[in-house]
Amino acid sequence: MDPGNTVYIICRLALGAISSFFAILLWSRTRDAAWIFVIISAILTYVEIIYSILNLLGIISENILSENAVLIITILLSCMPTVFIIAAFSVMALRKYRSR
């Protein structure tokens, strides 16, 4: 593995770990639905980082849970954080428009 890949992996793991750590700390302190969705998104992003790095290193196979050459787990892990961010923004938008 070249040094560029090593720096890339270390940066993604470190920043993802810090993000997830603070997300878990915030989760125990908040009851707001929008924040919960953002927290879940941060944690799922870290799971996706770990999965992609394990896949890059060849530790896990990319065809886990594949259905007709569609990589279900890859699609889910890459799309679910965005879905939860959309849910958080939707909750906040509904809250702002209902208060008017």
Q: How would you describe what is shown here?
A:
The chain has one domain (3-98). It is mainly α and 100 residues long. The termini are far apart. The protein is globular, with a radius of gyration of 17 Å. 77% of the residues lie in helices and 4% in strands.
What attributes does this structure have?
mainly alpha; 100 residues; 3 helices
* Order of neighbouring strands in the sheet with most strands: 1-2
Percent range for helical residues?
Answer: over 70%
| Major sheet details | 2 strands, antiparallel
Quickly count the helices. Answer: 3
User: Any idea what the shape is?
Assistant: globular
Kindly report the average pLDDT value: 88
Secondary-structure element series: HHEEH
Describe the oligomeric state of these chains in a short phrase: single chain
Total beta strand runs: 2
Which range does the strand content fall in?
under 5%
- Pairing-aware structural class of the strands and helices? mainly alpha
When the domains are counted, the total is: 1
The span between the termini is 56 Å
Radius of gyration: 17 Å
